[in-house]
Structure formats: structure tokens, C-alpha cells
Design a protein that fits this description.
Lyase, Ornithine Decarboxylase, Chain A, domain 1; TIM Barrel; nine-stranded mixed beta sheet; eight-stranded parallel barrel; globular; pyridoxal phosphate
Length: 447
């Protein structure tokens, strides 16, 4: 799944990319369509770069996740991982469908509450929760705090005593299992900063149960992101199941196992993770424990739901070398290729361009960094200045990781839902880039 990896099979063609994404199709007159809405129409009115998200696709994928758990006979609560895409429209849509939220900051807590998600349907994860964030969460009666360390446990107990409250907690256990994913998004190895060492968890759980203001409910784990095989899940859940049996044998009560998230999607042509297989892994390892289960999906539901529209600024020819296709989107918009060497499908919006013979092309942005590269030697039609391109599968860790590097305003965002589209964030005005900056009076100019 990385652009610097040498793949041994050809890149999927435009037709193959579309065939595996039923929410996209190429209309012979209107061009690339998302849920029956012409993306060229959105680009004409909103401009590019522009994020576009399918509400119908997001809704359908979350429903499939829920159905998979139900079909496996699992009593599983679903908390959407807000970090994947935290837009209020996304959170409001999921609140309407009855899903909770998995948060990792006070800002995400505020967003979830703003979207109408009740505090008791919110789970607070994260390795470095501040005292202020914990006080707010505990004061609101948040549903569950996933505790990452012995030190954090003591802090929470002191806060509950000060507030006269009780906090429901799980211990996030690091099972030391290799998720077989990118090194920057694996979280379940002993070398990672996340969670409590497995060998320390039983003793710390007994200690948690003795602390004032603490209701020790169970255990949680999360081993990484973009996981395509259930084998790492089964290995991690088997260790958690053993831990549950151990602490119960010592007289402790365990009511909850939070299974985390991380199910992967198909960016290129790899088989995506299957919710049904995940449910099977959970049932096989945890199904007989008589606990309430939870999962925290993020990338899987929202990643394929989004794309980034861009326009070709110029096609920079280089003789016999592959040309540079310079887009108006950049690494400040979509960071994943620069940060993770991530592979994203590229599809022309024009039905004419989509049928042209493909040639090796380097696709880059205008930012002054060599890392501002979306693809190298990608097989694409020879697109010219003004042509439009969709960068696929950017609904997760796309807009939410954007910045204004090089003083580039944040791109517009659009939601396509139930046959219509809505601007859910206008393009950031240029003067908004400095509206919160203050210049000392002795440096201020006269303009």
C-alpha cells in the first residue's frame, strides 16, 4: 500500500478502480459521478481542491458493520473513531443512526457533544489525556475512559475524588501483537507508546478496583490501523480473553471488552478487511466470556466514502522521462502519501480522458517540498492543463489532517447525501489565514 513499494502486478486501471467502488461511475456525458451526482458540477460551483464525502456510503458501511456484529450474535456497541474524520456533518449523520463516538482529545469531545452524541455514548481513548480533559469528561459522565497507564489511573482517581464523581474505566492493554501494518500506524507492539504492558495488566486491574471513584469495568485493546487480516486480531483477543479469565479467577469482575478498531480498506487492489471476518474473530476468542463488547471503527466506514477533487495546473514534460502532472491539491491538503507513502487511486473526471491510453506519470502538488508527491510512475492518461482528477479513498485521515502550510487556505468540503449535495465547509478565505495573528505595535506597518 505504499508508493515506494515495487508492486509486482500492474496498477489497477480506471475501469478496475471504478468497478470495485459501486458508489462511483463514469457517465458518458457528465463524467465521474458519486452516488448519481456529477462531480464536475461540484467542481464548477465550489472550485478545487475540494473534499467530497458520500453520506450514503458512510451510512451503508456503518450499517454493515453493525449487521455483521448482530449476525455473529455479539452484543457489541459501536463507537465511531472521531479522529478519522471529525466534521460535524459526519458526526451528526452517525448520531442519527444511533452510533457513539470514540474520542482522543477534549476538542473531539466537544465536537461529539456539539453533534448531539450523548456523553454516555462516548469513549475516551488516548495516551496523553490532560487533567483538564479528564475533569471535563468525568464531570460530564462520559461512558468510558480507556486508561493507558498506571500513572493515568492515579490521576483519574484523584480527579474523581475532587469532583465527587465516579469514572467507568477499562485498562487499555498492549498485547505485544504485530498488526502487520505500516510502522507509523501500529499500536499494539511492546515498543509502542500505547497501552499497559500485558504482564502488568492483571495486578493493575486489581489495584484499579480498590481505588476511590473508579469503576473498573474491563479491558480494551487497539493494535493498529489499516489491518487487512484477522490473524492479528485473533492473537490479540486471545490474549485479552486469557487476561479476563485470570482476573476473574482472582475474584475481580469484568463486564466489558473493548476490541478497538483498525479494520483496513482497499486503496489499490488488495482485498479490504471484512466486518464479518472481524465479527467472527471476536466471537471465536471473546464470545464465551459473557461481557459487553465494543468496537471503534474509523477508516473502514469513512475512508472509501470520500475523495479529493483537484485540477491540473500544468503537465510538465521532461523529454523521454515521465512527465510531472502538477495538481492544485497538495500535501497540506492530503498528507497521507507524504507521511505514510500511501497509495491512492487517481481517476479523471472527464469521460474522454478516462479512455485515453495510459502512460507513466508522476503526480505532484505545488508545495515547495519534494515530498509533495501523490504518485510516481502511475499509469494515467496524458491529462492537460485544466483537466480534473479525483483522488480516491480520502474520507479518513484526509481533511482532518490538513494544514495551511505555504499559506494555502483549507479546501472546501461537500457532503453528497440522498441525491443532493451540500457545502459543509466553505473554502477558507485567504485573509482568514492571519486573522488570529497579532503584530506588536512597534512592528506594525501603516498599510
Amino acid at each position: 500500500m505504499a508508493d515506494d513499494v515495487t508492486f509486482h502486478d500492474p496498477d489497477p486501471s480506471v475501469a478496475e478502480l471504478l468497478a470495485s467502488r459501486p458508489y462511483l461511475d463514469m457517465d458518458p456525458l457528465c463524467g465521474l459521478m458519486l452516488d448519481g451526482v456529477a462531480l464536475n458540477d461540484i467542481a464548477d460551483k465550489v472550485g478545487t481542491p475540494c473534499w467530497v464525502l458520500s453520506g450514503d456510503t458512510l451510512r451503508a458501511r456503518m450499517h454493515r458493520m453493525r449487521q455483521a456484529m448482530q449476525d455473529a450474535g455479539l452484543n457489541a456497541s459501536i463507537y465511531y473513531a472521531v479522529k478519522a474524520n471529525d466534521h460535524l456533518a459526519v458526526l451528526s449523520l452517525l448520531r442519527e443512526e444511533g452510533f457513539g463516538a470514540d474520542i482522543v482529545s477534549g476538542g473531539e469531545l466537544a465536537r461529539a457533544l456539539k453533534a448531539g452524541i450523548p456523553a454516555h455514548h462516548i469513549v475516551f481513548s488516548g495516551v496523553g489525556k490532560s487533567d483538564a480533559e479528564l475533569e471535563q469528561a468525568i464531570g460530564l459522565g462520559i461512558g468510558q475512559i480507556n486508561v493507558e497507564s498506571a500513572e493515568e489511573l492515579e490521576i483519574i482517581s484523584s480527579i474523581t475524588s475532587k469532583l465527587g464523581k465516579q469514572a467507568t474505566i477499562t485498562l487499555r492493554v498492549n498485547p505485544d501483537v504485530d498488526a502487520r501494518t505500516h510502522a507509523k500506524i501500529t499500536t499494539g507492539l511492546a515498543a509502542n507508546k500505547f497501552g499497559i504492558p500485558y504482564d502488568d495488566a492483571a495486578a493493575l486491574y486489581a489495584h484499579a478496583a480498590s481505588l476511590p471513584g473508579i469503576r473498573a469495568a474491563g479491558f480494551s485493546t487497539h493494535i493498529g490501523s489499516q489491518i487487512l487480516s484477522v490473524a492479528p486480531y485473533r492473537a490479540a483477543y486471545a490474549r485479552i480473553a486469557d487476561l479476563v479469565r485470570t482476573v476473574r479467577a482472582a475474584g475481580q469482575t469484568v463486564d466489558v471488552v473493548d476490541c478497538g478498531g483498525g479494520l483496513g480498506i482497499s486503496y489499490r487492489n488488495e482485498p479490504e478487511g471484512q466486518p464479518e471476518a472481524l465479527a467472527g474473530a471476536i466471537r471465536a476468542e471473546l464470545g464465551g466470556l459473557d461481557v459487553r463488547l465494543a468496537i471503534e471503527p474509523g477508516r473502514w466506514p469513512v475512508g472509501p466514502s470520500g475523495l479529493l477533487l483537484s485540477t491540473v495546473i500544468l503537465n510538465k514534460s521532461r523529454g523521454d522521462e515521465a512527465p510531472f502532472l502538477v495538481l492544485d491539491a497538495a500535501m497540506n491538503d492530503l498528507l497521507r502519501p507524504s507521511m505514510y507513502d500511501a497509495w491512492h487511486g487517481l481517476v479523471p473526471l472527464s469521460p474522454h480522458d478516462a479512455t485515453l491510453a495510459a502512460i507513466p506519470t508522476h503526480v505532484v502538488g505545488p508545495v515547495c517540498e519534494s515530498g509533495d508527491t501523490f504518485a510516481r510512475d502511475r499509469q494515467l492518461p496524458p491529462m492537460q492543463r485544466g483537466a480534473r482528477l479525483a483522488i480516491l479513498d480520502t474520507g479518513a485521515y484526509g481533511a482532518v489532517m490538513s494544514s495551511t502550510y505555504n499559506s494555502r487556505p483549507l479546501a472546501a468540503e461537500v457532503l453528497v447525501d440522498k441525491g443532493t449535495w451540500h457545502v459543509i465547509r466553505p473554502r477558507q478565505p485567504q485573509d482568514a489565514l492571519w486573522q488570529d495573528e497579532r503584530v506588536p505595535s512597534h512592528l506594525a506597518g501603516t498599510a
